[in-house]
User: What shape does this take?
Amino acid sequence: FSTLVIAEHNGEKLSKSMYKILNAASKFKEETHLLVTGENVGKVVENIKATVPKEVVSKIIVADSSLLKHNSAQAVSQVVSNLINQNKYKQIVVDSSSSGKDILPRVAAKFNTQPATDVTNIVSNDTFQRPVYAGNAISTIKLTSATKFLSFRATSFDAINSEQANNISDIQKVDADSLIAKKDNLVKHIKDEIAKSERPELTSARFVISGGRGLKSKDNFAILDNLAGVLGETAIGASRAAVDAGYAPNDLQVGQTGKVVAPELYIAVGISGAIQHLAGMKDSKVIVAINQDPEAPIFQISTYGLVGDLFKIVPELTEKVKDAKQ
Amino acid sequence: MRALVGVKRVLDYTTTKIRVKPDGSGIDLSGKQIINPFCEIAIEEAIKLKEKNIIKEVVALSIGPKTFQETLRHSLAMGADKAIHISTDLSPDQKLQPLIVAKILQKIIERDNFELVLLGKQSVDDDFNQTGQLLAGLLDWPQATFASQIAIKDKDVEVTREIDAGLQTIGFKLPGVITCDLRLNTPRYAKIPDIMKAKKKPLEELQLNSLGIDLNTGLEVIKTEAPQQRKGGQVLSSVDELVNKLRNEAKLF
Assistant: This one.
């Protein structure tokens, strides 16, 4: 046995990022198992069977339990620890998401091991690269532990081809209830407040339009919506300055402390380009900057820049993209 | 009830340009240093809980060279009651890794019986985002990472967490570990009289090598280099030109 990947899903489907994480995990060129935790995850398992080739994942391990309903770090880590003890995995791999980052170090602690989070490049089976200082430097690290605990940044890897799936037949169920200690101090879930949006998910959208302080109000953010609608496959993001000013909710924040995105097209509207923001989007394929300050640092990294009044440029761009697409 | 708060000292990213040393050995740390912003939020939260009489004593702990005592004095000036300095010359952004920090915190917690640990969600130097989770794993305590709101009544804690999809609220009974995110609070400025008072507050000094902690973590930083610079800066003159470029050069639609 060699690599265990912890799946992230929404109760029905594997998250889009996982196809990139599975590709990263496959670079170890060893057998890979995919662990699905949660309550009533049958649909997720079917989705994996339909979209993940068995050349990528040789076995699906299913831990289905009411104790795993919200996949708390405390509960999931107990299941993973047990699997490591049983199968002596060489690598434990998660997505560098809020959930992956919550779970991975907790498991690693049980094995007295220092994890490597936010890995962006696999140099060899024991050597990896990760950004430090908000992406101002790249650190190359070597891991010598018996089990390596890794979180990968999905945006740094391509997705596996999910159309050639040919039914993973090896499915193992584990008795999760018996693995999770039902102690008094188990975390209890109270509520989720999930932002509902018609738009695709920020980290996996083909295009992203982000607004900054230059938009001046929450209401003005709507002009980005129009452009996103015309472009299609577009998610809306925001700079930390815009979030702090209350123009956009925090789950839209792109940057060092928010989400890291790398879409095909990133349009920064009224964003000056603080280093903390650039850390979250500078790997986008094409970057467009719209800002009235010609000295704004965002222009130093943008593929195309437009200097001027965003309240004139964005509506004009919306109309002209609409015309061009017809 | 007593709270332990970990505080790290980092380069002041707001005023100092991050410079990679030409020999690839790391970052030039000679610039101005400040408290890690997430740690400052953790200290502020602990002090607020003390002001609400929910916790009795706030102890700030920092691990690093002698200069880290300035960060502890800053924490004391903000309102912490006591400070513990674990003295070491291990480089704070390379050798002093989260697993070592978590083990040190574990030792001090077992020695002094803390029930609440507040930490920043990550430090802005090594950007690991691990210490709280590792500590909770070592202690087998509940954890609440990325907190944007904390409510405590007796031993019952409710924490609202910032997750990728929005917000999640969880609850647990103390003892536990909470890591703090940006929106939890806005740290106060220490006033001059508080800075003077902080000089008289107790600061305990311990040597890291007296704690008997294994410093081999299984992770070695072998090289630090500057990222590839993105070539940019093509400023266009009109929206028409932009649409043309997106369509015909980048072939996006």
